[in-house]
Amino acid sequence: MGLWNSIRYYNTVKYLQIKSKKLACLKWSIHGIIFISICVILFWKKEYQENSHLVSSVTAKVKGVAVTKDSDLEGVLWDVADHSGLPQGKDSFFVVTNAIVTKNQKQGSCPEVPDSGKKCRSNKDCTKGYTDQKSNGVQTGKCVDFDWSVKTCEVFAWCPIEKRRVGPKPAILGSAENFTVLIKNNIGFPNFNYTNRNILPHMNDTYLRGCIFNRTTDPYCPIFRLGNIVQEAGENFTEMAVKGGVIAIQINWECDLDWLLHKCVPEYSFRRLDEKNDKKTLFPGFSFRFARYYKQNGVEERTLFKVYGIRFDVMVTGKAGKFNLIKLITYIGSTLAYFGVTIIVVDFLLANYVHPSCCKKEVKSYYTGKKYETVEYQLEMRDVSNREGQDCESSP
Predict the structure, then answer these.
(1) What SS3 class is residue 360?
(2) pTM listed for this prediction
(3) For residues 136 and 113, what is the distance between their CA atoms, to the nearest angstrom?
(4) Which of 19, 44, 218, 344 is buried most deeply by CB count within 10 Å?
(5) How many CA within 13 A on the CB side of residue 251?
(6) Parallel, antiparallel, or unpaired: how do β-strands 299-323 and 245-256 relate?
(7) By C-alpha distance, which of 325, 320, 197, 192 is closest to 256?
(8) Burial class (CB within 10 angstroms; exposed 0-12, middle 13-18, buried 19+) of 186
(9) Cα→Cα distances 3→9, 12, 145, Å
(10) For 285, how many CA atoms within 13 A lie in the half-sphere containing its CB?
């Protein structure tokens, strides 16, 4: 019968209308708070917009020359090919700030450095053909004088072996803080078929020749002084140049592609990525080795460079938004349910916590009686049975 009745009849909700100005004010106040919250979220988070992910490409061009003053490299000129010509992977560039140089190396036999090899007293302490991860070469089996105070195992290696373990201080290329880098960033939002770049339309050749990025006076210039980048990251270039490090150049694109509010310009920020504290890491800074080979008198020789420097990683993030009617309708539809909170709050307060100044006790009791009906299940079933029995007796 219940299913049959549900098919034949239409049921609707019964509402009680309470004539109370104070309750009406409470209702519309809650409605107002909900409406304002929905509007704030709608425009603050731009819920009416469809979003698109970003695709990006980055190129960097460093400029600057410097002359070293270290005793081993005094008077040596370093240009772009010397200090920035070493590839570091996608969206990164590297600038040399310090170096240890070992000249005129050639293959032969020489004593191992005590820090990397084994100290010895006689040939019995050395094993021919032995090597390990710290060695600079392969042991020949001989024990030879490293200097007047210590003997080490002789190795077959590029001799003379690099002896210096710590870079010069101050750094030999401390003037690299005055180098500049031009960063070209091309971005696109595939969903909207929109492209842009960080060299903005008003930036002509004359402007680019004279501008340097400045957070206050020129925040969109794509040319950066290296010293300013490190300073923006909260570091000291002179100190960082000794051991090197890694700096992130972050480019963020938050684009609004709506016609009236169109804005799509880059925002730059900088921070250090590596750990600089000696107590928290074994090998602070950033360094690696490379060599330049040549022949002298028919013998192959090389100059070994252990270079310290700053690697700059360019990281591009962002998103774009554009008005979409379906997104707006979906958002409005999903927020309409919040207005039902008003009924729950008012009913709860009216049934439990309404102050006497708002409604009298009699009004509250009358409302409760109208709103809620309490029945006993067994008594109700007995009354129904009695009525059904009377109906049967009265029927012919």
Answers:
(1) coil
(2) 0.76
(3) 8
(4) 218
(5) 27
(6) parallel
(7) 320
(8) middle
(9) 10, 16, 105
(10) 21
Both tokens assigned to 375: 């029945």
Q: Which two tokens stand for residue 36?
A: 């304002």
- Which residues, 6 or more positions from 176, have their beta carbon under 8 angstroms from its beta carbon? 64, 66, 83, 95, 96, 97, 226, 241
- Do 113 and 101 contact (CB within 8 A), yes or no? no
- In angstroms, the CA 73 to CA 382 distance is 110
Count CB-CB contacts under 10 A for residue 169.
13
Instruction: List Cβ neighbours of 165 (8 Å cut-off, separation of 6 or more).
Output: 115
**Whole-number Å distance between alpha carbons of 69 and 144:** 35
Neighbours of 56 (CB within 10 A): 17
**Bridge-partner residues for 98, per DSSP?**
308
Looking at the DSSP assignment, which residues form a beta bridge with residue 363?
A: none
Each residue's pLDDT, cut to its tens digit, for the chain (396 residues) gives: 566 666 777 766 667 777 777 778 888 888 889 899 989 988 888 888 888 989 999 999 999 998 887 666 767 888 988 888 777 778 899 999 999 889 899 999 999 988 877 789 899 999 999 988 888 899 999 999 988 889 999 999 999 998 888 888 888 898 999 999 999 999 999 999 999 999 999 999 999 999 999 999 999 999 999 999 999 999 999 999 999 999 999 999 999 998 888 899 999 999 999 888 766 666 788 999 999 999 988 899 999 999 999 999 999 999 999 998 998 898 888 888 888 888 777 777 766 665 555 555 556 666 666 666 666 655 555 555 555 555 545 545
Q: Rounded distance, CA 266 to CA 222, Å?
A: 10
Tokens of 384: 């129904």
Is beta strand 223-225 parallel, antiparallel or unpaired with respect to 180-189?
A: antiparallel
